Here is the input.
Amino acid sequence: QVELVESGGGDVQAGGNLTLQCSASGKPYSHYCMAWFRQIPGKEREGVASSWTCGGNTKYADFVKGRFTIAQDNAKNTLYLRMNGLQLDDTAMYYCATGWANGHILSPTSYSYWGQGTQVTVSS
Here is the structure.
């Protein structure tokens, strides 16, 4: 059974930076696609970024390109999301996910395992 635990969320002012972490346990972690998603209450969960383990290249949603960077350290079983230049509408619960991602890489339906999420709140 795969377990994912996110951390690193918090309150930050607009323009600030945060780095999220997702610690993974279970197997086979290194063979799975890993990605970050976010969700605002009342809205659908949306893909933010996927790791190079998903087909060999990282992929970003248009709304985070140039601001967020995804990284994966297999030796530490950890996925990261570096978020720079945070904006008010980046406020959301951020989730880490993993799985074979047989469908669209940034679609939540493509992933089998999810963490509990970490809240990011951006204020002016």
Remarks:
- The mean pLDDT is 93.
- Residues 102 and 110 are 6 Å apart (CA to CA).
- DSSP finds no helices and eleven strands in the chain.
